[in-house]
Structure prediction request, 158 residues.
Amino acid sequence: MRKMIVLAGALMAMAGVAASVAAQDKAAIVKKRQDTMKQQAANLKYIANFAKGVGGDQADAGYKVDELQFISGKLLSLFPPGTSSADLPDAKTYAKPEIWTDYAEFKTIPPKVADLETALGDAVRKGDKRAILVAIGNLGKNGCGACHSKFREKMPQQ
Ligand code: HEC
Prediction:
């Protein structure tokens, strides 16, 4: 009897360890997601600066677009189930639960983002600065913004 109680205690302790590892994994997922989002914003800023003539160069702006397309190709992998703001109230994630309840809609957004990035890439390759700024505006509004307006919680600094 005593042995069984000890065993049950050990199993419960192991389950506790597993749960906390999972919580750590989720925190890491949220951090990677937020870092990746910030990376996208930094790339757009670089390209915008090039278009405004206040920094950067055309070749690097092209690489930044390639990187954006690489990221939009794997955006969905940043959103595994169980990582919403409701699932992780302590993790400071702004990912709304609607991402997973309206997943059929959510998953249509990254391909649209990729198309808008293709248009941006064309403008960068041509070196057409006015077209670049228009393409950034479109991407921000109809790509990034389309997702944020429905699927991201209001963020304190925005
Ligand atoms: C498919 C949906 C989706 C798309 C597309 C998307 N985002 Fe986000 N973004 C989110 C969500 C959800 C969050 C909140 C993530 C979190 O807190 O876990 C977020 C957060 C952010 C943040 C805040 C990061 C932080 O924690 O400080 C920035 C900046 C950002 N996105 C920029 C962009 C830019 C720029 C683009 C377009 C190139 C973009 N996002 C495209 C869904 C999206």
Observations:
- The domain at 32-151 is CATH 1.20.120.10 (Four Helix Bundle (Hemerythrin (Met), subunit A)).
- The chain has six helices and no strands.
- Residues 30, 33-34, 37-38, 40-41, 44, 68, 75, 93-95, 109-110, 113, 139, 143-144, 147-148, 151-152 surround heme C (CB under 6 Å).
- The CA atoms of residues 85 and 93 lie 5 Å apart.
